[in-house]
Amino acid sequence: MIDLMLVDDLALLRKGLVRMIEADHDLQVVRQASNGQEAVTMLREMKAAAQPLPRVILMDVRMPVMDGISATAVIAKEFPDIRTLILTTYDEDDYAFTGLHAGAYGFLLKDVSTRDLHRAIHAVADGDAVLTPRITAELINRDRAYARHKISDPQARQQLDKLTPRECEIAGLIAQGLSNQEIAQRLTLEITSVRRYVSRILDKTGLRDRTQIVITWFQAGMSD
């Protein structure tokens, strides 16, 4: 069972999201908050009381008191095991890239289908990054441009040099935008093996998540 927190200032929207989410019997909404500050305070109180924390947070962007981007940054720092998925009405690059930089694991629009929402939550819970197709393409294009117009970053190259050939191969597939399931199918591996490889890649490189693997891959000039 994956426990979730919903953070949105619109109670009616939260109510609708609960219905969508809990149509998947492996998902349950355990906490709700109406703004980022309320969410952070709630998490701190849960931690102090030794209560189980949510595994995934669905976070709105525009909210009073504390917006979703600011809250995501605080949560990523204080609760690194919680994965935040930005859910917004606005398909704008600034929200996506600022959210990812703050520590979000994904970015989806609020008109997402129930099926795609379920898939995204499961993927984020498993450590995958989830982005809209346009944002994924823009992220990759930006980093390819970085690699084309600048000398490869020695620090990024050093981070990847720590990897074994198999880990480097998997990092390259992540940079291509493949999910754990797609990598498992491509390399004829068990999904659990791929997850272990991804965990080792993150541990060895000191990177936070899959999005940073993509960025580091292109900054190191590995796409050439």
Describe this structure in words.
This protein has helices spanning 11-21, 36-48, 68-78, 93-102, 114-125, 133-149, 154-161, 165-175, 180-187, 191-205, 210-219; strands at 2-7, 27-33, 56-59, 83-88, 106-109, 130-131. By secondary structure, the protein is an alpha/beta fold. It folds into two domains: 2-130, Response regulator (Rossmann fold, 3-Layer(aba) Sandwich); 151-220, Arc Repressor Mutant, subunit A. Strands 2-1-3-4-5-6 form a six-stranded parallel beta sheet, with helices on both faces. α3 runs parallel beside α4. The longest helix has 17 residues, at 133-149. It is globular, with a radius of gyration of 18 Å. The protein starts with a strand and ends in a 5-residue tail after the last helix.
Short description:
The chain has 224 residues and is α/β, with parallel strands linked by helices.
Mean pLDDT over all positions: 84
Question: What structural class do the secondary elements suggest?
Answer: alpha/beta
Count all strands and give the number. 6
Measured between the Cα atoms of the first and last residue, the distance is 42 Å
Strand order of the largest sheet: 2-1-3-4-5-6
Please write the string of helix (H) and strand (E) elements.
Answer: EHEHEHEHEHEHHHHHH
Share of residues in helices: 55-70%
CATH architecture of the largest domain: 3-Layer(aba) Sandwich
CATH topology of the largest domain: Rossmann fold
**Uncertain stretches:** none
- Classified by CATH, the class of the largest domain is Alpha Beta
Radius of gyration: 18 Å
How many distinct folded domains?
2
Q: What is the CATH superfamily classification of the largest domain?
A: Response regulator
